[in-house]
């Protein structure tokens, strides 16, 4: 089982909304893909003002669980991801992806 954590930084508040809307639109399709166990979208908790939290403007954190690397690769080439790429074109400044496995 693989855990994927992706940090997506958008250019602006409007771009953040565009990307979030797209993820919410494709989420149910992705959850139906073979090997997908979790596909969750997270943003900074807005009400918290704490020294414990580092907020990153216009950021999204994806938390995903995939059965195998083959399932994850199939997802990256899926129709839902093609739709997402088209819907969010120009909205994303950077993406950092970590693919983790339990030890």
Structure description:
With about 100 residues, this protein is an alpha+beta fold. It has helices spanning about 15-30, 70-75, 80-85; strands spanning about 1-10, 35-40, 60-65, 90-100. A 4-stranded antiparallel sheet has the order 2-3-1-4. α1 (about 15-30) packs antiparallel against α3. The protein is globular, with a radius of gyration of 14 Å. The model has no long low-confidence stretch (mean pLDDT about 95).
Topology:
Layout lengths: L1 E9 L2 H19 L4 E7 L16 E8 L2 H8 L2 H9 L4 E10 L2
Antiparallel strand pairs: 1-3, 1-4, 2-3
Report the mean per-residue pLDDT as an integer. Answer: 94
Q: Order of helices and strands, N to C?
A: EHEEHHE
Number of strands: 4
Distance between the termini: 11 Å
Overall radius of gyration: 14 Å
- Helical proportion, percent range: 25-40%
Oligomer: single chain
Shape annotation: globular
Structural class from helices and strands?
A: alpha+beta
Spans with pLDDT under 50 lasting ≥5 residues? none
What key phrases describe this protein's structure?
single chain; alpha+beta
What is this entry, summarized?
This protein is an alpha+beta fold. 35% of the residues lie in helices and 33% in strands.
């Amino acid at each position: 089982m693989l855990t994927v954590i992706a940090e997506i930084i958008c250019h602006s508040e409007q771009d953040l909304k565009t990307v979030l809307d797209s993820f919410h639109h494709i989420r149910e399709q992705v959850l139906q893909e073979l090997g997908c166990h979790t596909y969750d979208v997270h943003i900074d908790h807005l009400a918290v003002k704490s020294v414990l939290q580092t907020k990153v403007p216009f950021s999204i954190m994806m938390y995903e669980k995939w059965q195998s690397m083959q399932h994850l690769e199939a997802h990256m080439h899926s129709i839902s991801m093609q739709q997402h790429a088209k819907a969010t074109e120009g909205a994303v400044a950077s993406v950092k992806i970590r693919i983790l496995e339990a030890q």
